[in-house]
Amino acid sequence: MPQTDTAITEALTVIDRSLPQLASRELVSSAEMSDLLLDLRLLLMSADGDVAAEAGVGVDEGSLPG
Known about the structure:
- The protein is mainly alpha-helical.
- It has one domain.
- Helices cover 73% and strands 0% of the residues.
- It has 2 helices and no strands.
- Helix 1 packs antiparallel against helix 2.
C-alpha cells in the first residue's frame, strides 16, 4: 500500500497547491478545472492500478479513458 499512500499524498499536494490559486479568483475556466480534475484522476488511477497489479488483478480496459 505504500504506492497508494504516495498517490494520495500527491493528490492532496495538488489540491493544496491549487485551492489558494482558485480561491483568489472570481472566475475559473472549465478547461482549468478539467485539467485539475484529470490530474487528480490520473494520480488516483495510478494508485488503483498499482494495487490491482499487486493483487494480480487485471485492469478492465472498459474503465480506461479513450
